[in-house]
Structure formats: C-alpha cells, structure tokens
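Structure, all two chains, one model.
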Amino acid sequence: MISINRSVLVLGLALLVGCGGDDDADTSSEAFASTYVPAAADPVLIENATVFTGTGERLDDADVLLVDGRIEQVGQDLRAPRDATVIDATGRFVTPGIIDVHSHLGVYASPGVQAHSDGNEATGPNTAEVWAEHSVWPQDPGFSAALAGGVTTMMILPGSANLFGGRAVTVKNVFGRTVMDMKFPGAPYGLKIACGENPKRVYGSRGQAPSTRMGNIAGFRKAWIEASAYRDKLDAAARGEGEAPTRDLRLETLAGALNGDILVHNHCYRADEMAVMLDLGREFGFKITAFHHAVESYKIADLLAKADACSAMWADWWGFKMEAYDGIRENVAFVDAAGACAIVHSDSEIGIQRLNQETAKAVAAGRRAGLEISDGHAMRWLTINAAKALGIEDETGSLEPGKMADVVLWDRNPLSVYARAEQVWIDGVLMYDRNDPGKQPVTDFALGTVSAAGGVR
Amino acid sequence: MSRRIAMALAAAATLLIAPVQADVIAISGGTVHTLSDTGTIEDAVILIEDGQITRVGRGLRIPDAATVIDATGKVVTPGLFAAHTQLGLVEVNAVSDTVDGQQRGTEFGAAFEVADAYNPASTLVAVSRVEGVTRAAIVPSPGFAWNGTPGGVVSGQAAVVHLGEGDDFLVLRKAAVVAHLGANGGALAGGSRAGALLALTTAFEDAIDYARFRDAYDAGARRAYSVSRADLEALQSVLTGDTPVYLSVDRASDIRVAIDMADRFGLKLVIVGGAEAWKVADRLAASNTAVIVSPLNNLPGSFDSLSSTLENARALQEAGVRLAFGDGDTHNARNLTQLAGNAVAHGLPWIDGLRAITATPADVLGLGDKFGRLAPGMVADVVVWDGDPLELTSYPVEVLIDGAVVEGDSRQTLLRDRYRDLTDARPPAYRNR
C-alpha cells in the first residue's frame, strides 16, 4: 500500500523537476546544474514537542507535520494523514535543519592529507574563475558527521588565500555520487572574497601584490573596474548595442556579483576593514551579503545593521592571528542586539557538528552581559539568518508551511551540551536516525578503514 | 562580586589585630563535588585558611572572622586543571615573536624547558582564569619540517603553572617530557614511525649508559651519544619514573608500541591524543597508562586516527583507564568544560567528565596530593558555578586560586564593556575610564 503512494509522489516530483524553468531554454542545459531529487517520503507527524520555529518563536506541546517533503503545518493537535509516521516527541525538541554558511567540507576533506587540499587556488590573488564545487569530494566523512549534528544545508567556500577565492556553492547535506547530486536547487552562488592578513601574507611573502592592506583594496578596485566594464558590455549587447565580450569566467562571476545574482561573502575580521569593504561595495555597486568570521563586528554592529550585512561568527575563537586578537564571547549577541543579522558559523569540520553548542555559548555570553535573548530567538542564528545569507530563506531555515521539510528532532533542548540530534529529515526524508544504524550514512572512505567494534560508533 | 569580596578581604586584613590569625574563607551552601572519598556533598561548607582547604562538610561552624562566599544553589568544583595547553607560551599564534612553545633544530630535545618562557602577563591567562581554569600544564609542541627547521622526536619538557597573580606561578618545572611517535614522530625522525621509535629508544639507552659512565663521558672516554649532554641529563628522571612522558600518538598499533617501550624502560607513560585508544583500552588499563584525549575528535583527520569516535572517553572509562581531557587549544583552554560535557553526552558518567578536567590531570602529573580535589590539605583552587559546570550556559561566579579570589576582568571583558553601548557619545578610546 505504501508503494502506491511512493510511486505517485515520485511521479509528481519528476514532473516538478522536469517542468522547472521551462520558460528559460538555458536552464536545462546549465552546466553543473543540480541533479538532487529528494526521495519520496511518507508524511511524518512529530507530536507534543517543544518547537523552535527558527523565526524566533518557541511553541510548547506542538506538532510538526511533514508532507511531500514540505512543512505542511506547525501547531497543536494536528491530525496525522492516514499513512503518516507518527512520532511522540514528548520531552523532546524540534528545530529547523541547521545551516552552516561557512564550511570547507569536501574541499578540505578528511583525512587532511595534502592530496585533499583543494580549497585555495593560491596561484594568484584573483581566482574568481574557480568554483568550489569542482573541488568538493562527496565522500568526505565530515558530511555524515555534520548530519549527526543536525546540519541539513551548508555553503562550501573556497579558502581565503586570495582576494577573490572563487565561487561558493550551497549544498544539501545529502549523499550523492556527484556534487551535482548535492547542490541545493535554485540556491544562488556565493563569491568568496577575503580581506586582511591572509591575502597579503600569501602574496606578500612571494614578493607579489598584495603585500599590504592597501594593496588588498587596490587589487579589489582594479578587479571591480574590469568587472564593471565587462558587465556594461554584456548589458549593452543584451540591448542590441554592440557585441558581447568574449566569455571570461573570472569576470562572469564578478559581473554576477555586481548584478546581485551572486551573493558576496567576505572573509573579514577587523571592524575598520569591514567598514572599508562596505565602502568598496558602495563604490562599485555591489552588496556584501555577509562578513565571515567578523571577529570585530561588535565594534560596528550599528553600521552593519544599517548596511544590512550579516555577520557569520564563531562563538569564541580568538587570538590565533592579530586580526582575531579582539574576539569576545559577546560578539554574536551584540551584533544581534544592534538589529544586525547575526549568524553562528563553523569554518570547521569539528565545529559544524555542534553549531547548537556554539549558539548556546553565544547566547549565554549575551545574557551575562545583560541582554534578554530567548532560546527561540537564538536559534535564528543558525537557521533563518543563515538561510537569509545564502539567499534560500524562502525555501528553508524555518518551520513554516510550504518550506522544505528540513527538520531536526533533538533529545532535549539543543542549547544543552548533552543534547543530541536523534533524527534528521531533509526534504521530508529521514536521512539520519541515531537509533537505527541503517540510517547512519557511511562514506566509501570509511569502508574497511574505520573500526567500529566493541559497540563503539 | 569578586571585587567586593576582595575589598572585604583587604578590609579584614587591615582590621585584624592579631597578626597570627590567618585569613579564613568559607564557601557555604553549595553542592560540592569534592572528587575525593567524600564524594558530592549538598549544602556543604568549605573552609579555607592560608590558601589551603582545611575542612569540607555539612554543618561546619564558620568562624566569625571568615569571609563568606554564599554558594547557595550553586555548584562548587575544584579549579579546572588543563592537561595540555600552551598558556603563557603563545599570545598570537601567527606572530612568531609571541610563540615560545616550540624549539626548532635538534640541538636541544628533552633539555628544552618551556617553564622559562612562561609569561604570566599573557592576556590568555586572565581570559582562562576568569572562566575557572586555575592550573595548567604548558606543553612544548613539535617543530615540523613543513613549518621551518625541523625538531626531533622529543620536543622538550612541560611545566605546570597556576594562573593566579604573582611571580610564584611555577608549580612544577619538569612536569613531563614530551615526545612523538606515529606519523608525526616519523616526520620528525626522517620518514618512518619505526625510525621515531628508534630515535627515542636510542636516546633512552644513551641516557642509561651516560648515567653509569658519566665520568668517563666527561673525560671523553665514552662513545658518542645520539643526543646532547643536557638532553641525557633531562632524561634521567624519566628513566626513574619520576617524570612522566607525554607521548603524542593516535593509532592503536602505535599505542601498543608505546606501551611496550614504556614497559621496557620503566617509564610513566601518558598517551596524548589517543584517537584510537579505545581499541587498546584493556592494555592501557592493565599498564595503568593515563590518556589525554579530545572527546570531540571523531573524524579521520589523518590515517593515524581513522577510527576516531565520540565514544572514546566512555570506552576508556569503562575499561578502567585513567582519563584526562585536553585538545591542545590554548586560547580556548576555558572550553575544557565543553569537552567534558560532550563526553558525558556520549556515555561517560558525569562525575568522570568533571574528574577528567580536574583531579586526573593533577594525578597524571604527580600533583594529585595538592590539586584537583576539594579535601583537607589540598590547595584552595575552587570554582563556584552558577549551574552545571559542564553546561555551555554556566559560568563561574567565583574563582579562587591558592585561596585568593580572582578579579573579574580580562582583556575580553574590557573590550566587551568598551563596546557594549554603541550609542555612547564618547569615542571608544575614551570609554572604560
């Protein structure tokens, strides 16, 4: 009886995918397009849970209904469809799937051997032409570990050796044989740019530009001038005025950023440099969607709020280099309190597994500093705010009807150090179950290399 | 709160007429995890005199002159003892002038003592102590070839410091000799991990020979040794089992090799890293080998740690292995509690999680009779927490080091206070005054 439902669903999905973007002839032939198609899933009703919606609310004794891969309803005393899996979540917590806006999984895969060092094309300060997805190894064991930590979506970025590191890609934390099988359908690309110590160290140490912060900015301006000209030619050609320029991958990405199609993600630590970068954006007419690491965002939280720039931050990393010396525990909470978009990110294959814990540390620091922050509000920092920074907030990041059924069931309040994700759904499909070894993905790499004897997982 | 008590203490000191009468502090009303034979005591009183704990128990009479810290509804633990950090040896990792935990070249191995580089004024010290870290092992790190001139398989000697004020920070100068086997050892020894073992055992054999024929060696009538005279001297207390060996190793097969080596030379072995230690838990327990692990380490970060698991700590504890936590993180040494909390989340009993960041590190370094527990005769390193100390949302209300109440400021709290109100009309440089 289940098989009938499934086949109908599969057919429905196939039609949806097949019809997607049929007005645009280019879409179907787009290179490296997402081939991710969620498996069919029966409805799931999670009952009697404490629900953090991701939009800031906490609902007690609430139900969450997942149908056809989407959030159908969130509320009380929901009725289960006939074929639904019903889960009594009394005493447990439900949140949206966690989103990490800063990951290098797949591009710096485990084991961290030189052969897996695929995140920095450190052969020139401007490599806007490279795409992180072309480095992603889908068999990175870090993906399954992140899934056990409730991560359902992440952006994978190039590293920060270059001023322009290249394109970042947003993926669902699903297991495909190719990176295209993981790509988040419809998510905009990111452009990774980096200010501060890294580019000037990498190139300065080779006697190349940039070797200073002013050299960094000069390098940026030069590139944006070129990109603006390229964009203008493209626009003119589209209007029938002159020929389109020869296709240039580097300028194509930068022009995409100028147009707003590609979101700019800026690795930047110091407050004064972030302010300079905002001005750079004003000079050339691009928007910085998010500053990443942003260790000093608390010093200019008001400016960031005004510029509508997100800050993606650690809870407590500091001091590993000069530009991280002024890190404080209250950074996330202070940015949030100023009305700016605050995000907790990982930049770490270990940290990504417990972004809930990083959020707990950040909220606790804020409260100690006198801010009133509810648990439900803090959950925004790793759900809806992160979705906003990736341009996918209409699809995921909160438990609202119609959104992708990316959901985590926790055994207790996820802000507790003892909390563990028990079940994780992506697009309504149960991708992880702590109590079912059959629902714990094992990468090819782990086969025959990893021991799991003696009841130790 | 800290400041107020400190002032009260100062006032009390001034008012005391009889100079022979010692300052007494009473921590009263908390749930006290002693980690000693007396276990956990509800509504307990801890009496502290001259920096030492004199009594711990219920219903103790508090002397009239005592300064009382009200811990009602709070949790009281020994100060956190960081088993594996570079506190005071590094200020900013990427600024080499501020990095002293690593001696390059092979001129000095075991003789290199980080104690002489310790900087008690490092901002990391205050950042750590206000969050409950009271003692720390400061441990030299290996000098790999990819990061400059390579070092040898022995990185030097760890020391133990307290994180309080004052110049008497050094608790133990020669706390452990630090060495490396496995892939890292191999990289330091010229290729193979077997070469690393050979370098290490040769150094031990040379040190034994040197001790027997010291005069002949000094007279130039003995064969050449693989390491310097200073190194040979430094290895002597290792061979008597007085100074432990911090041996960095992850792979199960390398841990077996390490245990065999320790057995052969009579070493007091401490495994550092131990990603696959759970696979040899029985041997570790049988040889009474302590292990310092990071409970968050669950990925195959290298081919030496393929079978890393979040349940490492639980499995080791169940086998009876002495267990301490540390991941080498220095700037965030304060996150020891998070390490322990995660181990507990993956099956380790709660009290053993606390033990792994307090009592066991002290035991491992031979300091368990002074630190790491709340019992009469122990040094008064005490933390009063506003909740479960392993929870991420808990924080120290009071920290005592050597019985002295720690002041609340660190560079981070000063920055926080300078920028907490962005509407302040004064430029930031004129705030905090």
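Chain B touches chain A through 50 residues (CB under 8 Å).
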